[in-house]
Structures are given as structure tokens and as C-alpha cells.
Amino acid sequence: MRVTMRYGAIALAITLVVVLAIWPFATAFVNQWAQRDVEMRSQMLFNAARDQVLSLQGPEDGPRLTVLMERLAEDEGVLAVGLCESGTLRLASSDMPEGFACEQIAVGAGEVFTRADYAGIRAMVAAYPLSAPAEDVRFVILHDYADVEERRSQARIFLLLAAIGVAFGGAALASLVAFWIMRSWTISVRRAIEDAREGRAEDIKHTPTEIGTEIRAALSELDFARRSIDTVHTEWNPETLRIALANELPGSEVIVVSNREPYIHNRDENGEMIVQRPASGLVSALEPVTRACGGTWIAHGSGTGDREAVDGNDRVMVPPSSPAYTLRRIWLTDEEQEGYYYGFANEGLWPLCHIAFVRPVFREPDWRMYQKVNERFAEAVVAEAKRPDPIVLIQDYHLALAPRMIRDRLPDATIITFWHIPWPNSETFGICPYKEEIIDGLLGSSILGFHTQFHCNNFIETVDRVIESRIDRESDSITLKGYEAFVRPYPISIEWPPAAMEGQKPVPEARKAVRKRLGLPEDVQLAVGIERFDYTKGILDRMHGVDALLTAHPELIGHFCFMQAAAPTRSKLANYKSLQEEAEALAREISERHGGPFDVIQLVARHHDPEEVFELFRAAELCIVSSLHDGMNLVAKEFVAARDDEQGVLILSAFAGASRELGEALIVNPYDAHAMGEAFYWALTMEASEQRERMRVMREQVEARNVYRWAGQMLLDAARLRKKQRIMRLIEKERGRAQG
Ligand code: F6P
């Protein structure tokens, strides 16, 4: 409607301009025409009457001539007729104005036209010679000037209407053509949007589009607005995630890819098959999401019973208790694991990305193995994909090259890569001998996620320094090889409520059970630390903190215990082996030095299942997370989730991503043993009411920003990207068609 009005207004304006422009010429033309019209009619009247008039020139013809004149005067627009002889009116019709005088008529050889006013009666006088000028006999016809005027204004009106008609017709025709072009354009864009919404498969050619910046800007504004709406209003849980997926990515195929598998089948020492959940933040986060979305999870089969559990296609449905998705296992040789996992990923990239002052090691054979194994994963994705455009969720630093490899094979895939560890500054990353290849690999992603904006910034800065690409800092996107990758922060989290909370004993019972198991008196205050045995976790540093606490407050000896549960990990690597040895020695040394009825530091180096972990959390007065550097750290969030009694204090490293979200924890610098000792003391003496207030706020935070939100936001962004790409492609196609 608005469009129609706009075109109407344009047509009107064009008409007005045309009419104003031609009006002076039109008026002159009408005046001339009116004059000519009178002259012609006069001439015709005279021609018709001349012979009769000439035949009635005898002395007795006067009455007949008068009758003739009366008849002629009845002609339309004629006022009167008369006969002038030598300047005197000899005869005239009865309507001849009183003031008429033959002398006033200009004398000429032919017909003469004069305009005259006879006491208000305006006339146009035509005089026709009937004889030679010497005798001067003239036949006079007076036309009513009012009649001339009326004809003239009538002609003007007709002309005006004609001009308007023509101008408006022309303008309307032009507007109609423009409107038709715009309408077909709009229809094609709308069709494109509808196609995108319905998820119709289209050819994706990853060529840089030349769509106007206005369209781009409008689309990104739309994105931004939607992003804020989602953030504020959606309550995320498995159901909303499923709905979001079904609504926004209908019929999509989701493929998760990670090194670590979510379920490990192991044969225990008795030959019994047991299914383990690995100690992995990645798995804790992704598993509930994949359970909700379904699909396929491709991972390295590392368990001793893994091969027995799969079918002929290396697939097994999991979770074993209620199968919800397919686990597709990839088998790696020892040599492949050495080079790819232990070597390049964990001796190279892991220390490179964490500020833990462990020197990264890069070996060329490791790098080759890393490339080879990434290829294996990429091939598995292609083999598992049932559609040309799956949504592929690639996890972590083990698979930095896979996004590009998958993009090359499945150009229509939407690839979301999430980097679970920090991204260092560009100077630090610059020491990696394969930096260009790693960045190129990652930029095969459609969306590249980090936990924090800080790490996104570090990544973009690194790209800027390392390779030639187009960086758009407004939209945080990087275009390389004609493909745009968006860099976004998605703070990872845990499921809410956590599955491990199911069947948990009430807190007083958990306290009792754990103390009993550890051989501690019931009233002892317990601190816990639970993670993989990794040098980035600050396990030694927290022990120094405990030492500082007991040195400052020896009265706590016998009333306080620190229990460290540490799952052995990457034990083949020297740094990990030595850490474990060092930690065991330090725990012993501190316990011995402070004495007391029980070991003040109890180190339990084994894998703990999630249920056990949650029981420990519920039994403790405090939980310490003292990472030297950590992307997020989900242990901090799990502790908060475990405390439905709203008690317990979290001591949290300022260098873990979680500290950005859990500000009500006691935030510490793990390098400062004294400050850590004080934080321990503060936690142990904190009033129950203060504990409740802090815990309540943190629980609200973790509940709202749970892992379904993390996945939901990524998938919604992927959905928007797919729609946007489809619209862009169709607009391009339409443009191409329009240009012939
Ligand atoms: O922190 C990154 C991360 O991938 C975690 O998600 C996970 O806990 C760990 O590293 C992987 O450990 P692993 O080498 O045992 O798979």
C-alpha cells in the first residue's frame, strides 16, 4: 500500500511539472486558435452569403437584403451583420450595437478584422469588400467576443485536461514499469527468504558476494537484535534446545566431532565390561547437548572394550541406558596417538595456549601425524554425513585442521568449531612453526567459538599478524579463500539440573559418608579440589595455599582437611608424570610438617565418576579451583550446581574463564600462596548467611547460562548464518538472472 502511494505521488509530481512547463505555449496556441476559429467562421459565413448579397444591390432590394441579414445574424456566435457604403452603415440586422460606426473599420484591400467595444458589448468585427476600394462597399460581420472568450476558455480546459492526461498517463506508465521491476525483485527476495526458512537445499557456491552494504548491514542488525532477544528471554533446557533446533534448523543433521569419546567401554581386571564417563569438561558439556539433539558423535575409540561394543560400521548407540545418538568410533594406531595426541596436541598446542610456563615442543613427525589424523576425522565426517549440508560441531585443539578439510569436501556444511582452551596473544602463538596452517585450518569454519571475548580478540589479532585475510572488526569475521568465518564468544557451561544430582543423598548424609570414607572426624572442615592431573590446574599451588593457611592458623590442625581428587591424564608425558610425583611428594611433605591426627592433604589419584564427584562437592565446606590458566573450568560450575543447600564457598582462580561469570566466588591469584591461605581461612569462617547469598547468585547464573544455552546460541547463530547465506545466494542468482 505504502509503495503504491509512493508511486502515485511520483506520477503526480511528474504530471505537475509537465503541465507547468507546457502551459505558456499552450495558452498562446489556444489564443491563436480562437482567433483563427472566428476568422474562419466569419469567412465561411461571408462566402456563403456573398453572391446573394451582391444580387440584392438594387434600390428595391433593401427589404430582402435586410431579411437575409437577419437570417445571417442568427448564425452561432454572430452578433450582427451590416453593409457599409463609403463609411456609412446602409443596412444592418436588428442586433447591430448602437455605437457601431463604419468609419471605425480599418480600410484594407482584403478582409479586415478589428476588435471593438460598444458600450459593454465586445465584438470582433470582420469587414469584407464587396466592390473595388474606390466605391468602398463592405459587408460587415460582428462576432460576439464573449462567445470567442468562452470558446477560448473551453479550449484551454480541454487542452489542460489533455496535457494532464498525457503527462499522467506517461508518468503512470513509467511508474508502473518501475513498480513492476521492484515488485518482481521483492517477490524473488521474499521467495528467497521463504526458501531459506523452509530449509530448502540450494546450491552453495562459496564465492564472495557483491550484495550492497545496506543489505548486509540490515541483515547484521537483524542478527544483533535477535541475538539480544534470545539472550534475554529464552529459558534453556533440553526441550527448548530441541525446539530451537526443530524450528530454526528443520531436518538438519548434526555431527559432533571430538578426540575424546563420551562413553568409554573398558574391560576391567576381572574381564568385566564397564562403561566409563571420562573426566573431560568437553564431554560434560557436549554429552547432554547431543543427547537432546540426537545425531552422530565421531570420536577416538580409546577404551579396551571399545571395538567389541561397536557394530560393523564402528557405531554404537549411547548412552547405554537410554540410547539417544550414535557414537562412531575412529581407531588410531599407537604411532598415530603418539604423534597426534600426545605429541602435537598435548606437548605442542596445549602448553602453547596455556600460560603455565611449560615449554611447548613442536616436532615435525608429530605435525605430520596431526595432519594425517585430522584427515581421518574429516573423512569420517564425510562418510557419516547423509546430506551435503550437515551441521558439524568440531571440538577443540586436537582438530584444528579438520574444519578446512571438511569444508573442501562438503562445501555446503555449516561448521562450528569450538576451541575449549584459551587462545594466547599473537606473540605467543607466533612461535608455532605451523601457525599459518593451523589458522587456515580453523578458518574453514563457519563459526569459530571461544569461551571469552578476550580469546576471540587474541585470535583475530593473531590472524591479522600471521596471514593475509580480510578482517571485519565490526562483525568480528574473517574472510579467507572467499569464505567468511565468524568469531564469537560462547561461554560453555553444564547441564541444569545436572544428571549427577539424581539420587544424591541429603547434604548431612553426604558429609557423614565422605568423612567416614576418608577416615576423618565428623566435625572436620573439608576443602576439595577435583580435576584431571594437569599442570595447568594449579594443584601444587593450592597445596602451597593450604600450607600457608596452616602456618598462619595452626589451630586448624586436626579440624581441617584438604582432599584432592585427581584423575591421571596424559601420564605418558614427562610433564604429567613429574607433576603427579611432585604433587604426591608435596602433599606428604606438608601433611608431615603440620602433623595432626590425620593427613591434612589427602591426594586421591584416580578417576571419579560424576556421582562421586557430586557427593564430594556436597560434603565439602569449600571447593578450590586454582587453575594457572583455563578456558572456562566446569568444575567451578559443577560445585555450584551441587550445592542445592546454598552452602559452601567457591575459591576460584582469576585466570579461569569461569571467574568472569562467578564473581561471588572468592577470586584468587594462584601464584600468591599467602593470599590463597587467607582465602581458605575466609571461606572456613564465612557466616552461613553470606555463603547463602553468594551461592544463590552463582546458582542463578549457572542455571540460566547452562550448556543448553551455550549450544542453543551456537546453533541459532548457525541457523541465521544459513538463512543469510541462502538469501545472499538467491539474491545473487536473481541479480544474475535480471542482468540476463
Ligand atoms: O580443556 C580442554 C579439554 O579438551 C577439556 O575439555 C578436557 O577436559 C581436556 O581438555 C581433554 O583432556 P583429554 O586429553 O583427557 O581428552
UniProtKB/TrEMBL annotation:
Q: Name the InterPro entries for this protein.
A: Glyco_trans_20
Please indicate if the UniProt record lists Membrane as a keyword: yes
* The keyword Membrane is annotated on this UniProt entry: yes
Keyword annotations for this protein, in alphabetical order, are: Membrane, Transmembrane, Transmembrane helix
Q: Which residues cross the membrane?
A: 157-181
One family name in Pfam for this protein: Glyco_transf_20
Superkingdom classification of source? Bacteria
Query: What family is this?
Result: Belongs to the glycosyltransferase 20 family.
The name under which this protein is listed is Trehalose 6-phosphate synthase
Species of the source: Saliniramus fredricksonii
| Biological classification of the source | Bacteria, Pseudomonadati, Pseudomonadota, Alphaproteobacteria, Hyphomicrobiales
